[in-house]
Specification:
Elements lengths: L1 H17 L19 E5 L5 E5 L6 E6 L1 H14 L12 H10 L7 E9 L2 E7 L13
Antiparallel strand pairs: 1-2, 2-3, 3-5, 4-5
Length: 139
Amino acid sequence: MLARTLPLILAAVLAASVSGCARGTAPGSLSYYVATPAYKVETRCGGGYQVFQRPGEPTILVAAYAISEAVQTMCEQRRGIVPVSVTGVRHEEAAVEYIATRPDLKGCTVVSGIEHTRLHSEFVLSCPGVATGVVSVKG
């Protein structure tokens, strides 16, 4: 009897554990950026990164290439460069470089970030508001 029900129990456990993968993506997860185009960014020491930003969202995901991360670290150590960081989160320099290369992000700054993995960090941007015309109504 146990031999017949064991495969069914295992299948039910597997289905329950995989069902969480079918949920929709949420902000703050790597899967949130899956269908987003990637922009390539290089930093002063030649580190190569991909930056993802969903249209209209104030967040970006920075993904480092493993070899570039190693080269970047060695270059900074050799040159005595101490990365300036507002958030203290890995890959912030790539986020700042991304902002500098995008005219639509002029005036934006990095305000916070979180390191998801050693090769993936997500940052929140603060951008100046779009000026709107003032409308006055005379009554």
